[in-house]
Amino acid sequence: MIPKNVQNLIDEFSKLPGVGPKSAQRLTFFLLRGAKSNVEGLGEAVLKLKNNIGYCQHCWNLTEVEGENAPDSPSQILGSCVVCEDEKRERSIICVVEEPLDVIALEKTRQFKGIYHVLHGAISPIEGIGPDELYVKQLVDRVASANGEVKEIILAMNPNLEGETTAMYIQKLLQPYELKVTRIARGLPVGGDIEYADEVTLTRALEGRREY
């Protein structure tokens, strides 16, 4: 009963997290009823998301390049992100987070003046995610090659089992280096995600961090 092209879009929307069949249908028919420019704008934004986004060579946060320098794949290293390019940032403090969205959330507090390292996930044996699937080795390499410039590592993992496991693993790897390793305070609810926390909660979490 539904045209093939319409059903194809419904199926694609259904693959998104949190989008069920009914929501996928509503989204599809919203676009179908809307202006052609809206659909074209959405399509262009999706293509640029995959074709013009790569990872920062320093912290593995997302960075963007237009034109001829666009990456061949989303995971290609492109250079420096806006945080790493900021000369005013404190290079001696690195805040380790799970996802790029966590960087955005922490930046909204305007309290953290250091730099970041993005792991792109957390250790989860159930899901088959180990340290080798994350950018943990790159963090250790950053510390080792900094020649003592890094003084503190803030572990800003989510307060759940996966986050705690990841934080403990990184803390053990960093023990041979003479630096302070801290964990953000319990300003975040257990089981919650950093990206959904408000600015006040994140500010208190940063202010109350403690050494391992």
Produce the secondary structure layout:
Elements: H1 4-14, H2 21-33, H3 36-51, E1 53-56, E2 62-64, E3 77-79, H4 82-85, E4 93-97, H5 100-109, E5 115-118, H6 136-145, E6 152-155, H7 161-173, E7 180-183, H8 199-207, E8 210-211
Parallel strand pairs: 1-3, 4-5, 4-6, 6-7
Antiparallel strand pairs: 1-2, 7-8
Brief write-up:
This protein has helices spanning 4-14, 21-33, 36-51, 82-85, 100-109, 136-145, 161-173, 199-207, and strands at residues 53-56, 62-64, 77-79, 93-97, 115-118, 152-155, 180-183, 210-211. 41% of the residues lie in helices and 14% in strands.
Description:
This protein is α/β, with parallel strands linked by helices. It folds into 2 domains: 4-50, Helicase, Ruva Protein, domain 3, CATH 1.10.8; 86-211, Dna Topoisomerase Vi A Subunit, Chain: A, domain 2 (3-Layer(aba) Sandwich). Helix content is 41%, strand content 14%. The strands form 2 sheets. It has a 5-stranded mixed beta sheet with strand order 5-4-6-7-8. A 3-stranded mixed beta sheet has the order 2-1-3. β1 (53-56) and β2 form a beta hairpin. α1 crosses α2 and α5 (100-109) crosses α8 (199-207). The longest helix is centred in the N-terminal third of the chain and has 16 residues, at 36-51. It is elongated, with a radius of gyration of 20 Å. The mean pLDDT is 88.
The total of helices stands at 8
Instruction: Output the helix-strand order.
Output: HHHEEEHEHEHEHEHE
Structural class: alpha/beta
Query: Could you say how many structural domains there are in total?
Result: 2
CATH fold naming of the largest domain? Dna Topoisomerase Vi A Subunit, Chain: A, domain 2
Name of the top-level CATH class of the largest domain:
Alpha Beta
Strand neighbour order, sheet with most strands: 5-4-6-7-8
Largest sheet descriptor? 5 strands, mixed
Q: Strand content of the residues, in percent?
A: 5-15%
Q: Overall mean pLDDT score?
A: 88
Which regions contain 5 or more consecutive residues with pLDDT less than 50? none
